[in-house]
Amino acid sequence: MTPRWILIVIAVVVVGVAVPALASRAQDDGGGAGEHARARPVTAARVAGLENRLAALTKRVTTLQRRVAVAGVTGPAGPPGAQGLPGPPGEAGFSEARTVFVNGPVAIPQDLFVEVASMTLPAGSYAAWASFSVIAPTPAASPDRITCQLSLSSQGGGIATTSEAFVGPPPDRAPFGITVAATRAGDVTARLSCSRSGTGAANANGIRLVVVRVGTTVP
């Protein structure tokens, strides 16, 4: 038996014993035969005193019950709950990255796109980065305009990002940084191509192409 129930039982017993005793005592004082009844006559003051004692006792029992209710003993832990339903699968995160590095120089022809670096990947969602620089190996009459394109394509089409810069005579250098992202249903080709317009010559150097497979792409 826990301490809480012991206190409750004690309180009930006290009330159960005290109330009949006080009632019996009141009856003896009120009209019983014998010397005791004659020696202790019933008065309003005695009745009021008995009522006050009974009220005080009842108040103590009530207070004790409240204390037990507020500071009760913690019961034992309940059994574990049932296994919850499995949650939905999360989105796929970064799973792999591939890179290609071409030291160069790779000559960039006039008015014709030439492939500078590329790689082939399975169907999926990808983000691609390309960084490199273009220099003119010999002086020219005027700066050449260099146009480079980074694409993610498959059978049926693709997505490309184009960047342009002008490169003058040595030691001028035009840095490039291009990004593109796409989701393709078939095999994917990441391709960096460049072309120039002008009378001089231009080479691509230090070409780094990085492609990362992602969960999804947002337009």
If you consult CATH, what is the topology of the largest domain? Jelly Rolls
Overall SS class = alpha+beta
Largest sheet: 5 strands, antiparallel
- Number of distinct helices: 3
**Total domain units:** 2
Please give the radius of gyration in angstroms: 48 Å
Oligomeric state: single chain
- Provide the low-confidence segments as ranges: 30-37
Globular, elongated, flat, extended or rod-shaped: what is the shape? rod-shaped
Q: Which CATH top level class of the largest domain fits?
A: Mainly Beta
Can you count the beta strands? 9
Overall pLDDT score: 78
CATH architecture of the largest domain: Sandwich
User: How much helical structure, as a percent, in the residues?
Assistant: 25-40%
Terminus-to-terminus distance: 69 Å
- What is the N-to-C succession of helices and strands? HHHEEEEEEEEE
The proportion of strand residues reads 35-45%
If you had to describe this structure to a student in words, what would you say it looks like?
With 219 residues, the protein is α+β, with helices and mostly antiparallel strands. The protein has two domains: 3-70; 96-214, Jelly Rolls. 28% of the residues lie in helices and 39% in strands. The protein has three helices and nine strands, in the order H-H-H-E-E-E-E-E-E-E-E-E. Strands 1, 2, 4, 7 and 9 form a five-stranded antiparallel β-sheet that branches. A four-stranded antiparallel β-sheet has the order 3-8-5-6, with no helix packed on it. The two termini are 69 Å apart. Mean pLDDT is 78; it is low at 30-37.
